[in-house]
Amino acid sequence: MIFDVFTLFPEVFPIYLETSILKRAKENELLEVHLHNIRDWAADKHHTTDDTPYGGGGGMVMKPEPVFRAVEEILQYPPKCPLILLTPQGETFTQQKAQAFSQLPHLGVICGRYEGFDERIREHLATDEISIGDFVLSGGELPALMLIEAVTRLIPGALGDPEGAFDDSFSSGLLEYPQFTRPPEFMGWKVPEVLQSGNHADINHWRRNQALLRTLRKRPELLSQITLTGSDLDFLKSEVKESEKDIFDSILNIQKNRKDRS
What we know:
By secondary structure, the chain is an alpha/beta fold.
């Protein structure tokens, strides 16, 4: 998997890229990250990459010329691979989006700074717009690292445990089940006996139920986006609290309507 990252601050990236999973993925030739300083494509001696906005207002806007020149030299124009613009206005980045990106051999990423991008970058250069959430950062470098790691984890061979990525929260549409490690008892709090039983069928059943329950309690809207089995619904019905009944009834109706349509 190759990432070409266009940024004004390439120095932000190396220390994280040389750590843990990303470092191993690079060593195993599963990942390449090429950093491109947009200032290198600025035409003037001051390497200017921003200017005041037309129409007035605060802040500075990233100029189109250096960004277009950088992308054209590295990725051609139009870009030969998907080119992601990191922006609060983009589609929210999800595990499903990460899975889709992990199937691609090559991605370009543009990191913004200042007040934003000249709109012509958005309209005529980027192929995708991605946001990591409804909040604002000073630039796209941290979101770029988040995207790179989320995608890399899904590349076969990138994790020590080949099944590890599939147990993560959101991979199955549910939040991940509770995790425990040694000691079996700490300050009076015990690890559930089923996890110490060695019975993998019982363990998998417990983990599925706990993932369902955790999702109901913390992110119930996720349960409306996946198909639940009769056993799933029976378990949730047996555990639902009085305060959760309206939410659970809504989930039941959505599941029933989905079944009727299929």
